[in-house]
Known about the structure:
This protein is mainly beta. It contains one helix and 40 strands.
Amino acid sequence: xxxxxxxxxxxxxxxxxxxGWDLITIEAPIDFAEVFGGHPEFGNGHGSTDVNTEINPGExxxxxxxxxxxxxxxxxxxxxxxxxxxxxxxxxxxxxxxxVAYFNSMTDEQGHTIMELPPGWYEVTAxxxxxxxxxxxxxxxxxxxxxxxxxxxxxxxxxELTDFEISINGGDVADIxxxxxxxxxxxxxxxxxxxxxxxxxxxxDANFNDYLDPEDDxxxxxxxxxxxxxxxxxxxxxxxxxxIGIIELTLGAQEDDGPGFLTLFQNTSWLFTxxxxxxxxxxxxxxxxxxxxxxxxxxxxGDTDPSTANMMVFxxxxxxxxxxxxxxxxxxxxxxxxxYHVAVADTGFYLIAMEDGLEIYGNxxxxxxxxxxxxSGHEARIDFDIVxxxxxxxxxxxxxxxxxxxxxxxxxxxHDDDENVHIESDAWTDDDGYYELWLQEGYExxxxxxxxGYMEHHNDNxxxxxxxxxxxxxxxxxxxxxxxxxxxxxDQDDNG
Length: 496
């Protein structure tokens, strides 16, 4: 005698018979249907067909509606799906999945849907015909609480790509000081079809020859997981020029445009180029942005031993309250001869750090990884040794049921201030919960493992020896309960 209803049915609510059966008419054809239930003893229930089931007129489909015995444990995810003009999208499919189960629902005429979910972390997506897929990221559902999420879906357009010429600050080559902005202009061939669209790639000139070499240079978007290039469409974000056939965009640290931060890297060159996906070819039109240092009476410079190019270097003012490290142009990369020079704006104590930030080498690290430097002028000979990791650490991060946890962060660190030895390496797990990273053997590491929806793992006594080392971790789900923190406060002589 459970009350049942389906958003895809025109008949409204019905009641299951004494055997728990009911027949619900569904509007067809449709590729998905779900049933919600309610019962005074067993709480709320839910069931659905698989996605893309292809429900056809005249056919029968069976769905289990599962009821929980404690309805107070669940929470609600309220989703609103609309287009760029704020109009609701009817019939959008919303999916939510976590470590326990997979749920889906469809929006009504107001673009709303409500999903009753067990507490925990979920990934949420929204799909609608004629629109680009929407990804809402991770959301946590709490018992007896409502959580809201909005999706703004962009129109799904199959753009015709048009050849274009690219320039920076009006020319093929532009020079700016670190921290300055640059204007990228794309002019389309007027024989193309409106709206004009093209694909743009950005390469870091990793071999220092001032030419585009896709095999040797570092593809900015590919390293960021966005594919070989990004699609730019005339008069759509981030285009700042309303004129038809011309796209302009500003690169700058203050601009929220993704690649703007590259204008902070002193003494680097960046190649902006076209991409032809049909030919998988770059370089029909290319412009170069050279970012130099800025005029200053203060700087930090040094070398690497052995000489190692393209190691990332950044200087952070030790007084963090007065340091905006993500917008200050105090970054660079080591040059072809392994040297570096970074201008800084003022005097003071700086942490100068070096790492394989572009992940070119994978098994190299700087020792020490950072140094404290008092800057009162041009400080030279702040050198770094480049050391090769000699131990591969790998393993799996799983839940108590043995299932792999995706996107868990695994961090190994060793810090000895007296010996000025600082080693830190981290990795993120794949879909199977697997990770691997490089370390230096012969040290006892502090290990931390984090994942959304799980308790943190911490082990401060992991000794690495041998060329290969396996370290597996099981994370307990976070149960939203109170815990306790205890510790000891000691003086400089280690007295409690």
